[in-house]
Structures are given as C-alpha cells and as structure tokens.
Amino acid sequence: MVHRARLLLLGPGYLWHLHQLPGRQHLQLFRLPVSAVAQEVAQVKEGSHEGEIISTLAIAATQMMITLSAFTDAIFVSAIVSLLPVPVVAAFDWLLPSVYGAIVVQFGLRNWRYAAMAVTASIVVVIYSGLPGWSHIPILVVVMVALALFTHKRRMWVSKETD
C-alpha cells in the first residue's frame, strides 16, 4: 500500500527509481505486489493457469508504464535542460566522473588496493594512452573486469573473512 501511495504522489520519477533497483529488490518492491493485486482484482487463484496469465499481463503492463515514464521523463528533462544557463549545463559534465569517484571510494573503503588499481588504470588510460575521450570508460571497464578476474583466480587480496 505504501508503494502505491508513493507511486501516486511521486509519479514517473518514482517509477524510474523502482526501475533502477537491482534484481530481487525490484521484484520484491514492485513486481510481486503488482502481480498479487492483479490476481486479486481479477479474482483468480494464485498459481493457477489464469493467475499466471493475469500476473504476466500485469507485470508486462508495469514494464510498459516504466518505459513510457522513462521516455516522458527524458523528454521533460531535455526540455528543462535547454532552458538552463550554460554554466549549469556545463556542470553536468562532472556528473559521471563524480559517480565513478564515489564508486571508487566505496570500493576503496572495503580494500584500498581496489581503489589504487582503479586510479592507476584510469591515469594510464586517460593521460598516457592518447585515445579519444569516448573510449576511456569502455576500456577502463574491460581493464578492471580483467584485473578482477585475474586477481580472483589467483586469490589475491582475498580477506580472511571471505574464506
């Protein structure tokens, strides 16, 4: 009930927030209640063939609503951004680096070596590679995944709590 109230009060932005939740949280917070309510409204038994059909249609409808919501939000935001002053729009260029910086700090708090590897790889790719700017993030993602696999296979940097 609380989520339905939030949905009505906050509208499309809340739908987009729910869409961004990882796997199980997303299912527990939104999909399962929608499925249960749809089956209750349709007066079908849960687990029956009719219940599965109603559940599937309800979940598909919510996904379409989330997609439509994201689309309208994107149009709305792009219209608002076009009205903003140039210095404010230029500040958006720092959004992605700040998010990645926060992720590096989060992993660095777990184990400083992770942050050191990420920062070192970033410096090498961004400053010394001479590659175009658009290629930095994909290259760094591939490099960091490769380093993670390399260190995981050799059980490097594994803390004693995880053994």
Structural class: mainly alpha
The run of helices and strands is HHHHHHHH
Low-confidence region ranges: 1-12
Query: Care to count the β-strands?
Result: 0
Residue fraction in strands: under 5%
Which word captures the global form? flat
Give the radius of gyration.
22 Å
Largest sheet data: none
Q: Tally the helices: what do you get? A: 8
As a percent range, the share of helical residues equals over 70%
On the 0 to 100 scale, the average pLDDT is 77
Tally of separate domains: 2
Q: State the end-to-end distance.
A: 42 Å
Structure commentary:
The protein has 163 residues and is mainly α. Helix 7 runs antiparallel to helix 8. The chain has two domains: 2-83, no CATH class; 92-162. It is flat and about 65 Å long. 79% of the residues lie in helices and 0% in strands.
Q: What are the key terms here?
A:
single chain; 163 residues; mainly alpha; 2 domains; flat
Can you describe this structure in just a few lines?
The protein is mainly alpha-helical and 163 residues long. It has helices at 2-10, 12-20, 23-41, 49-83, 86-91, 95-110, 112-128, 136-153. It folds into two domains: 2-83, no CATH class; 92-162.
Q: Layout of helices and strands, plus pairs?
A:
Elements: H1 2-10, H2 12-20, H3 23-41, H4 49-83, H5 86-91, H6 95-110, H7 112-128, H8 136-153
